[in-house]
Specification:
Residues 1-185 form the RNase H type-2 domain. Pfam families: RNase_HII (PF01351). Endonuclease that specifically degrades the RNA of RNA-DNA hybrids. It catalyses: Endonucleolytic cleavage to 5'-phosphomonoester. A hairpin with an 8-residue loop joins strand 1 and strand 2 (17-24). The chain has one domain: 2-Layer Sandwich (Nucleotidyltransferase, domain 5). It is α/β, with parallel strands linked by helices. The protein has 7 helices and 5 strands; from the N terminus they run E-E-H-E-H-H-E-E-H-H-H-H. Helices cover 40% and strands 17% of the residues. Helix 1 (39-51) crosses helix 5 (116-137). Strands 3-2-1-4-5 form a 5-stranded mixed beta sheet, sandwiched between helices. The chain has helices at 39-51, 62-68, 70-85, 111-114, 116-137, 145-148, 154-163, and strands at 2-8, 17-24, 53-60, 91-95, 105-108.
């Protein structure tokens, strides 16, 4: 059985990276790339995926992203998923253009829109991350995380200008809008 893998939260400036793996045990209608589905549809499918699959979801917080780098976090999350789900699958497919040096991981661009297991993983990752950002929003009332989920929207940038970065902001992500420039060293993928 195929295990699809996808991530949510690679690009935001705050909050976690979330990577999910899903092995479908039953057919699920309406699966697609999470980004093209409405929030209501994603939420409904999320519950169905939980019921009809073997899955594993991994969170990497902003501190780990800053310390180890986004590629390291992605690779480690994928390896954890592969380890947790190996008794149910020996075939793993990641959405995107790289296998992160993992020889037993296949990859395909736009797999989240064309391979149902990867679509399911895409939905698990996005809904899990969105729920997390909604849940913590009240702890950080100055930033309205429930509205932009940590992405670099104009309102979010303005909040950072006014209040500074919080402990869930990714310090290593430099923002041109704040006059920040990348001067750090590149984190190794391996």
């Amino acid at each position: 059985m195929l295990c699809g893998i996808d991530e949510a939260g690679r690009g935001p400036i705050a909050g976690p990276l979330v990577v999910a793996g899903a092995i479908l045990l039953e057919n699920i209608e309406g699966l697609n790339d999470s980004k093209v589905l409405t929030e209501k549809k994603r939420e409904k499918l999320f519950e169905e995926i939980i019921e009809k699959s073997k899955y594993h979801i991994v969170f990497s917080d902003a501190k780990m992203i800053d310390e180890k780098g986004i590629s390291y976090c992605l690779k480690n999350s994928i390896l954890e998923i592969m380890e947790k789900l190996k008794e149910f699958s020996n075939e793993f497919l990641m959405d995107g253009n790289t296998s992160f040096g993992i020889t037993t991981l296949q990859h395909k661009i736009k797999a989240d829109a064309t391979i149902k297991e990867v679509s399911a993983a895409s939905i698990l990752a996005k809904v899990s991350r969105d729920r997390f950002m909604d849940d913590i929003s009240s702890l950080y009332p100055n930033y309205d995380f429930h509205k932009h989920k940590g992405y670099g929207t104009k309102a979010h940038i303005e909040a950072i200008k006014k209040f500074g970065k919080s402990d869930i902001h990714r310090i290593s992500f430099k923002l041109k809008a704040l006059g920040e420039v990348e001067i750090g060293i590149q984190k190794s993928l391996f």
